[in-house]
Design goal:
It contains 15 helices and 6 strands. It is mainly α and 308 residues long.
């Protein structure tokens, strides 16, 4: 029941975000494109679209730079929250929410692993988007981005009902969106360059990270093989051993799926982890074994010498 409430909450937040963007553009609030939210001269644009626009024009655009800096700050503070809380494509490709998988997720081939990042096929798409913009002088990727198409489709439907504007573009955009969702069901994990950019921005995120209470966890406290948290995670994070994960903690989208499927309720999302938890997480990321305080020092029996 808790998982359904969380999924519903994220879905409502996403709808509110789309509505704010659409209404702002529809009322001519100075937004400028369908992938931005703002009012008057204050605009927060899609960071990838902003970067590609500046590359295409070969100049620094103040509003675009501000948008990129603001999104960078948000990612450093909250991580990849956009992917699971605001992105409409996430819900199109995962209509029933994140259930415990009976089979492994379709993982993106990992090109290179760093301490806080995984370099996979999403980064290849990101480089291709930047390269095509440099060559053609136009952000080509924005024409096929499912997120941008979703926002454009919402605006066209609004204009259809308000002004009675009929256009074949609605059918075209709807067809393209359906084709992308059906033919590319693993867009988020394998192809999304915006997700790759958010991962880069979130590499330094240290807040709201999933934390396991080892005294309550079935695997660490009772030795019962569980793995429910990793099966529920759509980016396949292994909270018990990051070195065995397909992803690092910087990939976490804060969807809370792991916490809500945990049978022992041993996973929480504190704003800042405790010092002991932080040091354990650092040891996991560096590939070093984690010892408890008792294990890290030899046990000395009373009245005997060490080793006797």
């Amino acid at each position: 029941m808790r998982k359904l409430k969380s999924t519903r909450a994220r879905f409502l937040v996403m709808l509110a975000f789309v509505a704010i963007c659409a209404i702002g553009f529809f009322t001519r609030g100075g937004i400028g494109n369908v992938c931005a939210v703002g009012w008057d001269t204050i605009t927060l644009a899609c960071p990838l679209g902003a970067i590609l626009s500046m590359i295409a024009q070969r100049t620094a655009i103040p509003q675009a730079l501000i948008s990129v800096i603001v999104v960078l700050a948000i990612c450093l503070l909250l991580g990849r929250v956009f992917c699971s809380w605001l992105c409409p494509v996430h819900f199109m490709t995962n209509p029933k929410g994140r259930k415990q998988r009976q089979r492994p997720i379709d993982r993106a081939p990992v090109l290179k692993r760093a301490r806080t990042l995984r370099f996979d096929t999403r980064y290849a798409i990101l480089l291709a988007a930047i390269g095509s913009t440099l060559i053609l002088g136009f952000p080509v990727f924005c024409l096929m981005c499912p997120i941008g198409i979703t926002f454009a489709l919402v605006l066209l439907v609004m204009r259809l009902f308000v002004f009675g504007e009929t256009t074949w573009t609605i059918i075209l955009f709807l067809g393209v969106l359906i084709a992308e969702v059906v033919l590319l069901p693993h867009w988020c994990n394998r192809l999304c360059p915006l997700g790759a950019l958010y991962s880069l921005f979130s590499a330094g995120n240290k807040t709201l990270l999933p934390t396991v209470d080892e005294s309550s966890c079935l695997e660490t406290a009772k030795g019962i093989k569980c793995g429910a948290c990793q099966r529920a995670c759509h980016v396949d994070i292994n909270l018990h051993d990051i070195t065995k994960s397909h992803a690092t903690l910087s990939e976490c989208t804060k969807c809370r799926a792991c916490a809500e499927v945990c049978p022992a309720s041993a996973i929480t999302f504190p704003f800042l982890p405790k010092k002991k938890e932080a040091s354990q997480g650092a040891a996991s990321n560096s590939g070093k074994p984690i010892f408890t305080e008792q294990e890290s020092s030899p046990t000395i029996l009373s009245g005997t010498k060490e080793g006797e």
